[in-house]
Amino acid sequence: KTTTMTRVTSLIGGALLGLTALQASAATEMPPIPDVKGDVVKADGDFKIKFSIGTTQSGAQYRGLEYFEKIVEKRSDGHIQVELFPGAQLGDDLQAVSALQSGTLEMTAPSTSPLVSMFPKFALFDLPFLFPTPEVADEVLDGEIGQQMLEDASTNGLVAIGWAENGYRQLTNSQHPVSSPEDLDGLKIRTMQNPIHLDIWRTLGANPTPMSFAELFTALEQGVVDGQENPWITIQSSKFNEVQDYATETNHVYTPFITLVSERFWKRLPDDYQQLLREAAKQMGDYERHVSRTMNDQIKQELADSGMQITELTPEQMKTFQETVAPVYDDWRDKIGGELIDKVRAVSQ
Ligand code: KDG
């Protein structure tokens, strides 16, 4: 009887998940492209944008880029062509940013974390547990703080035109379940090339190694590192679950993507086209955040169904993680600016 009941339950569960997947898929349909065909057409010349990202074609970020491409090509009546290069085909984050500065690539949208040496204030987004909800992240990114950061980042051969979402980061590893900092003892955890992330995992007792996103899957597969941390969508779209048996839902950091344009390319665009790219970047970011949040829970469930053992921390266990990493703020408060951190905390109230 139990077996039958179990089978029936799992059939219903599967059906519901199927329904959920269908619902999620319907809920993340691309919105209609503004019916303004050719409303921004300039006679003087055609332009081509190569847009490179590190995440793969099956992630939420790529869905955003497809939307960006359709908006820009439609509203310029094809006078601006956009070609998408996912999966770090044209180089990792830092290589792509360098290519923008030299003018050999037109656009990229990395996480802010690897850019902190260039833009120290970006480290705000690496502070552990600072953004309690996606709504707080939106208010910071779309409000005065985020808009000022875009202005500040529009230098060094770069023009920053919008925000999208990598998301809340979760820990995975190949060794054993993790439900406390003690479980991290001796674990080699890959981090982004970012000093705060190194601080976080050292403070938690792990053995962190900075590495580009492009090298990560191979390093996990070869056991060069035992674990990493990324949002559920990135874990699935980069197939980390194929080489990581354990995950812990830590939500320890919220990471945005920043949409960047090569200044050399930007200066060749007529003002109308510059405005068009800004508007399309905003629409891309809004849509991509919607996709990221709609898919998040379903993808977590799919990872569990694929055999990943996901540890959900109790409030007490989460509190232990939060209290253990609290000293990271002491080291970074002055460098980032206490006032900026307090502003984010005020948004959270
Ligand atoms: O281009 C992709 C990276 O910017 C993004 O995935 C960063 O989360 C990241 C990581 O782990 O490197």
UniProtKB/TrEMBL annotation:
InterPro entries: DctP_fam, TRAP_DctP, TRAP_DctP_sf. Residues 1-26 form the signal peptide. It holds the Pfam family DctP. Keywords: Signal, Transport. The keyword Transmembrane helix does not apply. Belongs to the bacterial solute-binding protein 7 family. This is TRAP transporter substrate-binding protein. It comes from Modicisalibacter tunisiensis.
